């Protein structure tokens, strides 16, 4: 099993055309519409904004933010308002100087109105907010502000989710950042990471790798047939280190049938369940004691029908080899896979001889490869080590109570509800 290195994989993620680099065992932007975020508890505030609503002039004004005349505002700017004496906002409209209306939606807690796409750099906008005071009196306020020029110092980001793809029930929403998000900025960034699930399921974010990755998952595996609608709305967002988010990342994807694999080192067998029913039991060979397989719940990250495992640069001569591999399914960045291993068929089910991979027969390797999707989970138990956090998409290797501790925002019991 190869060393745990992720630099090449990180660059692939940031380009958003990820081709996960094989190191060996042993070694598509769409719409920005309505989104629901999983980072914080749902609010109970103003209703959703009515775009372009016509209103008569209110008797009293309210204060709009950004302030009238404000300049150099980030393109991630949200519109908010203060109503003297209390009250509720009923509508927000935002238009550029040429009269073009900007789509957006109110956060459920009523704290602000979020444009559905980044604003343009160096552009003037006028926001009009209408509401009702605590006594039922109409209120209105306007503000004209200008966004900043495009900054030079930006963070790169990546989203391991693509439009119109179907994933397994264990597929977390995985976001990467380079450089990582400073700890003091993670709560603000998390508020701009929106996930909508249909049917609705609560969830939470968890930060790993010094802020270079964040995972989003539900308390349990996604329900088969779920639609995930994701917007990582970071374009132009200012960070404390003087950098700004580079782009918004969006994706709408599907979750397929339930296909779950379980491996027990004690029996050296894999049991396979589809939609809750046992469909196959097969012998395996795991990592030998010097290069053990990682225990934990992992997910299939990549599939290669044919590839080459090359560990000739390993510092340990005993771990150097170059081998043709069939039906390889990546589980970790460090190089653990499920794959066909005809050379170990004689000991599969009885002895561990691999460099950390899950060895199966050629026939079972082909069968599994034909059944699985990216995001299908596999739980391995009873080996000599636990998977390291972030060595693969390890969101499910933590209990729910452990997982929510990695959120930068409070998570209520059972998971967070919608932000928008």
Automatic annotation (TrEMBL):
Full protein name: Lipoprotein-anchoring transpeptidase ErfK/SrfK
Gene Ontology cellular component list: extracellular region
Pathway: Cell wall biogenesis; peptidoglycan biosynthesis
Gene3D superfamilies per record: 2.60.40.3710, 2.60.40.3780, L,D-transpeptidase catalytic domain-like
Organism annotation: Micromonospora palomenae
Domain L,D-TPase catalytic: start-end pairs: 259-381
Regions of compositional bias (Low complexity) in chain numbering: 43-60
A GO BP annotation: cell wall organization
Active site: 339 (proton donor/acceptor), 357 (nucleophile)
Record GO terms (molecular function): acyltransferase activity; peptidoglycan L,D-transpeptidase activity
UniProt keyword terms in alphabetical order: Acyltransferase, Cell shape, Cell wall biogenesis/degradation, Lipoprotein, Peptidoglycan synthesis, Signal, Transferase
Residue numbers spanned by region Disordered: 42-88
Pfam family, one: YkuD
Signal peptide segment: 1-23
UniProt keyword annotation of Acyltransferase present: yes
């Amino acid at each position: 099993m190869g060393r745990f290195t992720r630099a090449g994989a990180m660059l692939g993620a940031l380009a958003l055309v990820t081709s996960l680099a094989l190191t060996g065992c042993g070694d598509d932007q769409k719409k920005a519409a309505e989104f629901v975020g999983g980072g914080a508890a749902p609010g109970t505030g103003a209703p959703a904004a009515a775009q372009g609503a016509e209103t008569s002039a209110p008797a009293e004004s309210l204060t709009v933010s950004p302030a009238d005349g404000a300049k150099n505002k980030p393109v991630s700017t949200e519109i908010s308002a203060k109503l003297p004496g209390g009250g509720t906002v009923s509508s927000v409209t935002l238009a550029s100087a040429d009269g073009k209306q900007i789509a957006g939606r109110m956060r459920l807690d009523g704290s602000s109105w979020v444009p559905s796409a980044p604003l343009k750099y160096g552009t003037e906008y006028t926001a009009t907010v209408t509401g009702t005071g605590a006594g039922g009196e109409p209120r209105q306020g306007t503000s004209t502000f200008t966004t900043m020029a495009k900054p030079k110092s930006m963070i790169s980001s990546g989203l391991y989710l693509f439009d119109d793809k179907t994933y397994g029930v264990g597929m977390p929403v995985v976001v990467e950042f380079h450089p990582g998000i400073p700890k003091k900025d993670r709560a603000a960034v998390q508020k701009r990471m929106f996930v909508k699930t249909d049917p609705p399921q609560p969830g939470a974010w968890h930060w790993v790798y010094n802020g270079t990755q964040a995972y989003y998952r539900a308390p349990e595996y996604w329900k088969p047939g779920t639609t995930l609608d994701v917007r990582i709305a970071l374009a132009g967002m200012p960070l404390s280190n003087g950098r700004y988010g580079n782009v918004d990342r969006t994706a709408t994807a599907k979750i397929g049938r339930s296909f779950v694999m379980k491996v027990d080192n004690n029996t050296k067998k894999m049991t396979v369940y589809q939609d809750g029913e046992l469909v196959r039991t097969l012998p395996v060979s795991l990592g030998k004691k010097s290069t053990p397989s990682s225990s934990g719940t992992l997910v299939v990250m990549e599939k290669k029908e044919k590839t080459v495992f090359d560990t000739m640069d390993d510092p340990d001569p005993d771990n150097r080899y170059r081998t043709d591999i069939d039906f390889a399914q990546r589980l970790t960045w460090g190089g653990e896979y499920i794959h066909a291993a005809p050379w170990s068929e004689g000991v599969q089910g009885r002895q561990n001889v691999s460099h950390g991979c899950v060895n199966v027969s050629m026939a079972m390797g082909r069968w599994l490869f034909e059944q699985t999707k990216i995001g299908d989970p596999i739980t391995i138990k009873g080996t000599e080590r636990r998977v390291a956090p972030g060595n693969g998409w390890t969101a499910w290797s933590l209990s729910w109570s452990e997982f929510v501790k990695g959120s930068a925002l409070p998570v209520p019991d059972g998971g967070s509800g919608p932000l928008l």
